[in-house]
Task: structure prediction
Amino acid sequence: MYQPTSCGEVEQEKVKECAEPLYKMGAFSENSHYLGWEGFIFRTKAYFSEVCDNFFLFDVCIEPYKDVCFAADRARFNYDAAIKILDFLCRDGYGEMLRNFECFTKTLTRSEMMQCQAELVSDTRKISESHSEVSGANDAAVCGAMRNYIDCVKYPIRYECGYRAWQLVREMIIRPTKAMLPQCKLNTAEKSSSVLTILVVLFISLL
Result:
């Protein structure tokens, strides 16, 4: 098996080729490589299953490049958040995701959930416009905005879909967030989670 010793342009292009089916399906974004979780919910179970099939192929395809192209934070950042969500959803969370698909779809359209999302977008826009020069200030502000969002969406999800569904959603935000904001403390037992795509506003706020 081919084993590259560095992650140059050729190797990076190979990784992108591995990801091409996921790009075409919209699971990876050309600009930020983030995964839109609600993109699954507003499509179909069949779409979700196909994304997972392509993710497993992607995971095998990038195997020769993991040590050299995913070891350094800068190289890994482009894919890390999306990979962490897909790895969880397509493995440990797969059955629970399918069981709660219809409930998630219904809950995401509730007015209080839409208000939670609007508040999060507003908060992160303010952060991105502040251009703070204090080291770590933006990261801390984003982390705080996420905590507020977590508190906002927790009870609608638990009320409509149940505790196990809430645990699924909690994991979906903790794993990629740890990749982008390692210092953000979100994994306390009953106060950590979220729903909808907040990764995109995180990327915007960190630019």
